[in-house]
Amino acid sequence: MFDGALTALITPFRAGRVDEARLALNVAFQIEKGIDGLVPVGTTGESPTLTHAEHRLVIERVVEHVGGRVPVLAGTGSNSTAEALELTAHARTVGADGALLVNPYYNKPTQEGLYRHVRTVADQVDLPIVLYNIPGRTGITMEPKTVARLAEHERIVGIKEATGSMDIVSEIATLCDPEKFTILSGDDSLTLPIMSLGGRGVISVLSNLLPDRVKALTSAMAAGNLAKARAMHLELFPLFNVMFIETSPIPIKTAMALAGLDTGDLRLPLCDLMPQNRASLEKVLREHGLLRD
Questions:
Q1: Are 40 and 9 in contact (CB under 8 A)?
Q2: Residue 23 belongs to some domain of the structure
């Protein structure tokens, strides 16, 4: 269900509020360009600064606008198990196809705590769950053995891997049944190497801007066309890199605004791209023909 190119959707804001009209346009753009799935209110969606009401609203609207055409994997993770449980239950109620559970952040649970956290949600909500390993954000890494323990649960179907470690990806691939458990890249620049190790796609930042080209890369890898995938990877690599010139989603939201696809508004504590970094971003976008005239 969750493979290929999935977009980690930005959350559009206008005048400090969720811009529902722009959200609808962004979803329509993604569907038109052939994306394989959408992931609202994850890291790229600025979930830490959304109120619970806004969080639920964005998931509801994305599910509504998608209308069953592609899977919706809703970000429902939290450092509170009770909160993750509530958000996941809501996602199921409104028709999401799965839930993305980031590792609890700040409180730094043990591996056993991580296991019990996810297992509690999986036991109580009848919805497929994708784990999310991103220690650069959470301060903790779910170890491959813990991933393998959780993969035994029928509702835990995959992982978004953003540790940056190919050794961790390799160990997960060794321990988990690829027919039942999907590894997805959590970093655009690592999609090709992760798919070469058995991964089946990416939850992408860049695909907010270029869904068709990110999908083409994952499709080439899935078809075993390494030469084409490598060429696309190298072509897109400057864009992959510049999208992290500052904390994401600052660069991608700025790029969306420069391309005429969004307002680019951010919510504090995230703020505007520094002038020198904006100049670098504009240069790369210009070189790829992505600046709005």
A1: yes
A2: yes
